[in-house]
Structures are given as structure tokens and as C-alpha cells.
Design a protein that fits this description.
The chain is built from seven helices and no strands. By secondary structure, the chain is an all-alpha fold. It folds into two domains: 49 residues, no CATH class; 52 residues, 434 Repressor (Amino-terminal Domain), CATH 1.10.260. Helix 1 packs across helix 2. It is elongated, with a radius of gyration of 19 Å. The N and C termini lie far apart (44 Å).
Length: 114
């Protein structure tokens, strides 16, 4: 938890804002890290209990996205170029390796409009 908190303090803008606010309130770095670790544990618990951290895009499942892409005679490379990402990310969405919810939603919208 400590490592996650420290990395977030360095890289995550929300956490940087939180740290700045708590420093202004007079908390020490040690106290801020303790608070961050508690927040991280709450996030992890929520993910474990719901089995996913973010909702899946609309009602289309991964298999349906792949079938729709194939039915429209589109390759993963064409879709990836249109969305500005690597073809591997489209494969990740279709196979379920990564959720990539924002990209999956954009992928879904692209297929509906194509």
C-alpha cells in the first residue's frame, strides 16, 4: 500500500491535489500517506466486492464487438488507426485481457457508426 501511495503522490493528479490540500491543512507527509493507504484499501475492497472497477461498455459483450467488426469487414488495424491506438489494444478488448473501458466505448461507437 505504501508503494502505491507514493507512486500516486508522484504521478496521479488527483492525489497531488489531495496532498497539496492536506499539507495546507497542516498534516505531515507521514499522516498523508496513512490517509492515502486507507483510501487505497477502500478502493481495492470495492473492486473485490463488485468484481470489476468500472462498468462494461453498454450491453455489447466482447464477442459481440468482434462479430460486429468482422461483419463490417473491418480489421483490427483499421479500427485501431481510426481510434488512434495500437491494434493490440483492440485485441485486448475483444479477448477481455484488459477492460480499457473508455477505448471500448469508443470502439463500440465507431462500430455503430461504421
Amino acid at each position: 500500500m505504501y508503494r502505491i501511495a507514493v507512486v500516486r503522490m508522484r504521478c496521479d493528479q488527483r492525489t497531488k491535489d489531495y496532498v497539496a490540500r492536506r499539507i495546507a491543512e497542516g498534516l505531515s507527509k507521514k499522516e498523508i500517506i496513512r490517509c492515502l493507504k486507507r483510501a487505497i484499501v477502500r478502493e481495492i475492497y470495492r473492486v473485490i466486492c463488485t468484481k470489476r472497477s468500472t462498468p462494461q461498455p453498454r450491453d455489447l459483450r466482447r464477442d459481440e464487438l468482434k462479430e460486429l467488426r468482422i461483419a463490417k469487414h473491418l480489421t483490427q488495424a483499421v479500427v485501431a488507426d481510426s481510434l488512434g491506438c495500437a491494434p493490440a489494444r483492440i485485441s485486448d478488448i475483444e479477448t477481455g485481457k484488459r477492460p480499457l473501458t473508455e477505448l471500448a466505448s469508443a470502439y463500440e461507437k465507431f462500430l455503430e457508426s461504421a
